[in-house]
Amino acid sequence: MSDEWSDEGSEATFSDTAKEDIHALYHESCAICLFQLPAGEKFAHLIASSEDGDEAIELGVYLGLIESSYERLSAENGFLLCGTCNASYFSLHNVALSPPPIVLRYILQSLHKPENFTRPVYEICQSLVYYSHYPQNAPDDMKDVLPYVGLYSLVTLNPVAVRWCAIMSMRFPPLSTIENFRFVPASGDADPSSPDNARIFDALSITSNMPISLGIIPLTDARSEEYTQKRYWRLPFKLEAVLTEFLARTNRATCHARDSEQYYSARIRTRCSTLKYQLEDMEAGIDWPGDGEGEGGVVANKPDVLPNVLEVRVGVGSEAFG
């Protein structure tokens, strides 16, 4: 393994064993642009080992997004990035990985089901991962989501900073389409603008004899009209870890486009906070406004109740409720 591969700048580094595991897993390729370079890649943390990561984990554990035992110095929290993807985009928080909108929407809908009012989000995530391996046995409302489990969106967090930027890929993937609960190669005449088709960037499947295929990954619609085409990255992260990191990066004070990753992330955070506050208040003997039937408040049965109260307590405006 080249001495040029490093995680310099991290508060705590991966062990040599973890680095070897990450290096082998990604085949010396950047997880995002898929460039294979002789040196200069960085062992990056999904959830940082620094104070930023401490805050993300603290919030995630409080809201039930992730287990406190999640290990940020393990190989499962690491991936390889080239110098450009790391320094220009991830380190500056110009972009972030997120579960696809369809996965986030399923999680949000699950949090509104009575049987999930006290269920941690990470258990919902783990259920999705489990059934992605056994789709025929999955609940009906989950089946359409399963092809997207294990795939992640690359979300632009700072469109002003990267307005005219694009990431070049040397392993630009062909189109894929969904068949039997998974993405498979699409036909040669497939429409790249169709919502049923997507490009799947998969560093784990790269081989040394794979032909070079150049393409660009636009970060805003100013660079290319292809920005709206669907692109996903197949990465071996825990779903709940990606959700935790993305939720920590999402600006809740901003009104996000409906059905976007940021939109669902803000609503998941609000929903988790609402349920958490309600449980804490009930344990303290404080009732929330009820449903008019003489019982103490059950916000879980009226998820949009008291947006003004939640704006103060949770820190988001009423736009988060959609």
Count the domains. 1
What is the ordering of alpha helices and beta strands? HEHEHEHHHEEEEEEEHHH
Helix content: 25-40%
Structural class: alpha+beta
Instruction: Please provide the count of β strands.
Output: 10
Q: Helical segment tally?
A: 9
Q: In terms of per-residue confidence, which ranges show pLDDT below 50 for 5 or more consecutive residues? A: 1-6, 291-322
Residue share in β-strands: 5-15%
Q: What do the pLDDT scores average to? A: 85
Short description:
This protein has 322 residues and is an alpha+beta fold. It contains 9 helices and 10 strands. The strands form 3 sheets. The protein has a 6-stranded mixed β-sheet with strand order 3-4-10-8-6-7. A two-stranded antiparallel sheet has the order 1-2. The chain has a two-stranded antiparallel ribbon with strand order 5-9.
What does this structure look like?
By secondary structure, this protein is of the alpha+beta class. It has one domain. Helices cover 31% and strands 14% of the residues. It is built from 9 helices and 10 strands. The strands form 3 sheets. Strands 3-4-10-8-6-7 form a 6-stranded mixed beta sheet. The chain has a two-stranded antiparallel ribbon with strand order 1-2. A two-stranded antiparallel sheet has the order 5-9. Strand 6 (175-179) and strand 7 form a beta hairpin. Helix 4 runs parallel beside helix 8 (261-283). The longest helix is centred in the last third of the chain and has 23 residues, at 261-283. The protein is globular and about 65 Å long. The model is unreliable at 1-6 and 291-322 (pLDDT under 50).
